[in-house]
Specification:
single chain, 159 residues, alpha+beta, Aminopeptidase, 5 helices
Length: 159
Amino acid sequence: MIRAARDEDAGALAGLFNALNGMDGATPPVPMTPAILRRDLICPEPRARLFVAEHAGAAAGFVTGAPVYDAARGGMAMMLLDLYVAPAARRRGLGRALVARLAAAALAEGAACLWWGVEAGDEAASLFYRAIGARSEGPYSGEILEGAALAALVAGEGR
């Protein structure tokens, strides 16, 4: 079952977010907590869409997405931000169902496409995305500006 996240999901979802964010062995800058989920995603005006996959009566996965403007398509798109299914619940169609639910939300909100990035070398994810009909847009590099570098740019201290 795929549904919108509810307040009572916050604890389980925090654990799932932390499992996703720790998959590469790194510690995320800010661990996800139920309070953060309630502040940003399970609230009257969420910063992104959050859908939950239930399996055996418990939250077993989630997808997040946010509307963005796509200048190449001259309209709205939905950016898939995070997709995760707990290892014990994989190979049951939950990932596909989560992406389908986000796609339905995207179309309902007038988006022309879903767009997301994939970590270089993540062959399992790439195979999954091909299986649901996605295609690669080609090689891209993810870039991030945060912390002191972000503040320095804002302050005009760049190179």
